[in-house]
């Protein structure tokens, strides 16, 4: 993924009509079932913990 933009803006999540809607940077828009949203949230937390342990990234670009 070198050259891809790294965002520091969190994704916004809302529940509507029994589904979870995500709205994020650069046009990200996705609808998830509650189970898929929970699994995605857990995976994102684990990945965020791992990224912080690796030193994180504070710039606009991923480390090369």
Protein model, in words:
- The protein is α+β, with helices and mostly antiparallel strands.
- The protein has a domain of 42 residues.
- Helix content is 31%, strand content 22%.
- The chain has 1 helix and 3 strands, in the order E-E-E-H.
- It has a 3-stranded antiparallel β-sheet.
- Strand 1 and strand 2 form a beta hairpin.
- The radius of gyration is 14 Å and the shape is flat.
List keywords for this structure.
alpha+beta, single chain, 3-stranded antiparallel β-sheet, 1 helix
Instruction: Give the uncertain stretches in residue-range form.
Output: none
Largest sheet properties = 3 strands, antiparallel
Quaternary structure type: single chain
Helical amount: 25-40%
Number of helices: 1
Overall pLDDT confidence: 89
Describe the global form: flat
